[in-house]
């Protein structure tokens, strides 16, 4: 019997391994194909996708008198430093000599010690009486000399004649009387200035001196703010100026304006007048400042429940000129860059930029960018693009975008295309 050799056994084993590897690869390929074939899903359809619904309003022109709004701080029309004109010790102050005290015009504020100035008046009075007495004596001597030398004096020598009649002495005495009168008047004025009075109805602030202190001439003792009228310096932009009828340069106006102040948790309204403009346009900011005036802000003449204090931050509404072809729209539809959505005749969206009047509030006023009869979208739109087809619904129907119905929620969540269509 013939025995198999080692080489033939090795060759048979190699062939068997090759066959097994090929078999395993074929099984894997066919198995993968079968899994894919059996698990293949039917194509998704979105038969229920609907065109987004929007609500619109049709634009119409109107004539408007709108309020141009600006802001400012209440200031006194006059802020006068109280400065004594003479020096001395303050010996008396008014009971109202406190920050926030009100004074009427002519009411005494404080007094400076009078003794020194009373002595000056007495001395000046004495000197005046002396000068008057000397003048009377000189006039008497001149009269006697004229009678004694009448007819003896040569008219050709005028200098000799004046000297003989004591005219130089009389002129000197008259000058001394005049000088003494001026000295008395000056000392009397200084004495009168020891009492300091309010030059106008005002509110005291920034008090720096009190009774017992020495006041130097020209030293500030306090500041008195005029309260018969207050003024508000308000900025107006270049656009705002074009809509307001402003007073001319050098003239005043009585145009009524509304001033609103937040006092505590409530808003209070005051009547004011657009008084004037400052007449200079700031080249850096393009701002023109106007001045608004309010009469009797503290209610001193006519009592007020809520006075308007100096330093209060307020809002001012200035009526504009009459403007035609203005379109009123709700402000909530305005997008960045003053853009809004308009639906054209083909029911497609148009991205429109508009020009607005410079106002605030829930209503905006368009004067450029729209024509009468156009359809402006007033409802929310998600993923809106230019040219997108929309369906217009009445304003009383909620313009919600309905999500399409897909075979299953799981499919919607797993397919980005389905999510995109659902969001509109």
Q: What are the SSEs and their pairings?
A:
Layout lengths: L5 H34 L13 E6 L3 E3 L2 E10 L2 E4 L5 E6 L8 E2 L4 E5 L2 H34 L9 H7 L2 H26 L2 E3 L4 E4 L8 E2 L6 E5 L2 E8 L1 H4 L13 E9 L2 E16 L6 E8 L17 E7 L3 E8 L8 E5 L5 E5 L1 E2 L6 E6 L6 E3 L13 E3 L15 H6 L1 H7 L2
Parallel strand pairs: 1-23
Antiparallel strand pairs: 1-22, 2-17, 3-12, 3-16, 4-11, 5-7, 5-10, 6-9, 7-8, 9-11, 12-15, 13-14, 13-16, 14-15, 17-21, 18-19, 18-22, 20-21
Helix pairs in contact: 2-4
Name the descriptors.
single chain; 424 residues; alpha+beta; 6-stranded antiparallel β-barrel; 5-stranded mixed β-sheet; 23 strands; 28% helix; elongated
Task: Tell me the fraction of residues in β-strands, as a range.
Answer: 25-35%
Biggest sheet, spatial arrangement of strands: 3-12-15-14-13-16
How is the biggest beta sheet arranged? 6 strands, antiparallel, barrel
Shape: elongated
Estimate percent helicity.
25-40%
Helix segment count?
7
Cα radius of gyration in angstroms: 49 Å
Structural class: alpha+beta
Order of helices and strands: HEEEEEEEHHHEEEEEHEEEEEEEEEEEHH
Mean of pLDDT: 82
Distance between the termini: 88 Å
Please provide the count of β strands: 23
Q: Regions with pLDDT < 50 over 5+ consecutive residues? A: 44-48, 397-424
